[in-house]
Amino acid sequence: MARDNIKFNKFMLLFKAINEKNFKLNIYFLRIIFLSSFLIISYNFSYWVSVKSFFEYSDWLINYQGGFTRRGLIGEILYHIHTVSGIGLNYILFVFVVVAYGVFFFILYKMVTSIKLNFINTLIIFSPLSFIYMPLSKTLAGRKEIFFFLLITIFFYKLRKIKFEKVKYWIIFISLVTSLTHLGFIFYIPYLILFFIYLNPDKNLKEISLQILPILMVMFFILVGMLYATIYSKADINIICNSIKDFTNACPQDTYLEVFTLSVTDIMGMVVEFSKNQYFIKYPIYYILSFTPIYLSFFNLKENEKYKTKKLITFLIISSILTLPVFVLGGDYGRYIHWQYICYLLIYIYTLNSKILEQPSNNNFFKNKINYLILSSVIFFYSFFWSVPHCCDKNYSFLYDKIFIRLFIN
What we know:
The chain has helices at about 1-10, 25-50, 75-85, 90-110, 120-125, 135, 145-160, 165-180, 190-200, 205-230, 235-245, 265-275, 280-300, 310-320, 325-330, 335-355, 370-385, 400-410, and strands spanning about 15-20, 370. By secondary structure, the protein is mainly α.
């Protein structure tokens, strides 16, 4: 009887009016979301491996067998593991990617659970562009950003223990291995550089410059090397195809190597065509909706004499502006702002965990007490009822239309 009363009282809490600051995310629900996300992505990627898909699978197989080329580093490493072990390249790739997702979700979960899971933080964690973005779209499973996410998550997880003069080696390593896997990631390294500067306001210009200049030099040489390899020293696509022919469909036609046969003009023409699909109307709206909670929380953080909120936000905005070349050269706008959001999220979590800036206890959205069930419903409809299309479809959904079509038409 006592146990029944406890269950009844817990159920009645759903209808209790509370202050927003007293909301607390159920830890078991959070675990279910993380585990479900990992399982869904793993299942989706297994499908892309089985059909040897163009974007999600073959992109990883690009290697240096035909000469130095962009996107080839991980493919070269996996290819050598394949030749030494004799294990199928597709199996090696599947294990590598799934393990990368597993480690990423595990570390991110540990970081997330170390902050207060109140209402505003729950909205931030479950933003449509947060980690739940990846399982909500099947075509995002297995994309190369997981490698970038994994490395920067480890970086922020370890950052408090990294000595000042050692941070540059971490950022250089991340710059090298991620940009040689996907050049677009190099334009997201400023998030790490500017946040490093922000964390050390007591260092003078000379001390900061000695740490930052080696990173900038490496980034410059990467860009020059990639430009040279793209224009002058092109890899032999036929040799690369020959090295992976047993693990692809028709090569290069049905692999990402086909993109290397296109000129810059061809690629820019495709981007222009994609942008005609109301990109400049829809994606700013998606951005505002997805980033509003985290911006509000950043602005509300309590600053101190050493660390200023406006300075941090300014650095974040500058970092976002520096990613614009990726948007100019590619059409996957949803993915690119997703990369931005993960950087924002990791910086936000680190800021709270290290107590650089503190989150106030006052309400953020609702001034008066509100029903617990209403707060939970807001989270559900904001986080799980719609998603941001990652690219290109002329008829992609705008918020709720696909769900309404399925409910009332089909």
